Amino acid sequence: QVQLVESGGGLVQAGGSLRLSCAASISIFRINVMGWYRQAPGKQRELVATITSGGSTNYADSVKGRFTISTDNAKKSVYLQMSSLKSEDTAVYYCSVTLPGQYNYWGQGTQVTVSL
Q: What is the pLDDT of residue 1?
């Protein structure tokens, strides 16, 4: 079992920045993929960004150039730096990890609200 604890969400004005953090209960060297997803009210959960154990990143088109995903091995954490935030970025953001064998775990979610 893997526990994921997210933090860093909150209320920010459009154009502002936030950094989300997600701390894992295991070494990230044991993790194949770490990622961030989001779910807005009335919408399906969607991928925001992922990073592999090899450092390859993938971003949703809607956040490219504005969001950056990164990891800190020592802190067993993955981060999402969000800049130039828009109202449409408002959602609950979830951290996710995928282990070998496609075992997938999710955090509890953190709310990000972008005001106009």
A: 86
**Are 13 and 102 within 8 A, CB to CB?**
no
- In this prediction, the residues of the chain whose per-residue pLDDT falls under 50 are none
CA atoms within 13 A on the CB side of 59: 13
pLDDT at 102: 86
CA 49 to chain centre: 7
Residue 49, CA distances (Å) to 33, 37, 79, 115, 116 in order: 10, 7, 10, 22, 24
Q: What was the pLDDT predicted at 28?
A: 87
Inter-residue contact 33 to 50 (CB < 8 Å): yes
Q: In whole angstroms, give the CA distance from residue 112 to residue 95.
A: 13
What is the spatial distance between Cα 16 and Cα 101, in angstroms, rounded to a whole number? 38
Cα separations in angstroms, 114 against 12, 13, 15, 77, 111: 5, 5, 9, 24, 10
